[in-house]
Structures are given as C-alpha cells and as structure tokens.
C-alpha cells in the first residue's frame, strides 16, 4: 500500500512544480510579505514548519517501531519508502498551508476594506467588484489551474481508503489491534481532515450567509440592505 500511495504522489509533485513556477503565486506572495500582514504570514509559516516537522517525526518513529521486527532487508526498504513518503507529504503540507494562508489573507484584506467603508457610499462597489474578481482569479490560479486542489483531493481520497483498509485488516489480524491500528488511523486521517477543514474555512470566508462570520457575501448583503 505504501508503493500505491507513492505512485499517487506523482500528480502531487507535478502540481507543486507548476505552482512554484507560477508567476501569480510569486507576485502574490511577494506583495503579501511587503504588507503589514506579512509578519502574520511569517509567524504562521514558522509555526506550521515546526508543527509539521514534529508531527511527521513522531509518526515516522512510531511506524518504524512497528515494522522493525520484520526481516532486516524488508525493514530497511520499508523505512526508506516511509522516509520518502513523509518527505513528500511534508513538502505538500507546508505548501498547502502557505497557499491556504495566502488565500485567506487576501480575502481578509477585502473583507476589512468593506467593513471600513460607509454603507451609504454606493460608488465604492465597482472598485470592490474589480478587487473581488482579481481575488477570484488568484485563488483559481493557485488551487485549480496549478492542479494543487485536484492532486490534494486524490491524496485525501487515498488516505480515507487506506483507513478503511487498515480497519478491515485489523478485523482479521489481531496483531493490528491496539496502538498500531490507532497510529495508522491517526497518521492517515490528519491530512484529509485538516485539508478539508481549511478548505471549508475559505468557503466560509467567502460564501457563508451567517453574518457573525463576516463573509464577503454576508457583508455585501448587509451593506446593500438585502
């Protein structure tokens, strides 16, 4: 199953390569770092790097302790494949968090501008509309056109399938029950659960109809009196 998961990382690596060479991503990142919110982005990424490093090391050590009792040659090969897998997932996770935070900060900038604008000043909305269209183009470029969202969805689906596979194996093999099963489930569930939650945060920031969440849609509706 590790070999299968490594094979699915091919589109992920291609999407990351495309994103790194994306001019829109480079310009948006440089512009954000030059703004006052650049400090927030730097602090977030430092915390993300630290957290991802600790989490991946803990999972890797746990997985290695689980397989070290096997044949030595098999153990070495499996450990090397696990190191390769965790390296790829680490780079993907950090990149995913960077793109997510960058997208959310750009959305927050527009939300703050709308909040500070008097609701009776109708002439500001053409400018907000153009800014919103530019924001949509940027988010679309970072996620869909780069292939990052499609590759991430493929990885999330595979992780969920691996969880189902692990639970099925545990039903038939008592050695998998207990902490090995929970370690496997947690290690596979972190990525899809976290990724789907972060995507939901972007959707809420844009389209939530609940005014307390202060989404772009709810703010526009409130300002226009609808």
Describe the secondary-structure layout.
Layout: H1 2-20, H2 23-34, H3 38-67, H4 72-116, H5 125-145, H6 148-172, H7 179-207, H8 216-224
Helix pairs in contact: 1-4, 1-6, 2-4, 3-4, 3-7, 4-5, 4-7, 6-7
Q: What pattern of helices and strands is seen along the backbone?
A: HHHHHHHH
Query: What's the total number of strands?
Result: 0
Main sheet record:
none
Q: Radius of gyration, Cα only, in angstroms?
A: 21 Å
Helix content: over 70%
* Weakly predicted, low-confidence segments: none
**What's the helix count?**
8
What share of the residues does DSSP label as strand, in percent? under 5%
- Helix/strand/pairing category: mainly alpha
In angstroms, what separates the terminal alpha carbons?
53 Å
Number of domains: 1
* Coarse morphology: elongated
Q: What is the mean predicted local confidence, pLDDT?
A: 83
How is this structure best summarized?
Keywords: Membrane, Signal, Transmembrane, Transmembrane helix. The chain is mainly alpha-helical and 226 residues long.
What would your notes on this structure say?
The chain has 226 residues and is mostly helical. It has one domain. 84% of the residues lie in helices and 0% in strands. It contains eight helices and no strands. The chain has helices at 2-20, 23-34, 38-67, 72-116, 125-145, 148-172, 179-207, 216-224. Helix 1 runs parallel beside helix 4 (72-116). It is elongated, with a radius of gyration of 21 Å. The N and C termini lie far apart (53 Å).
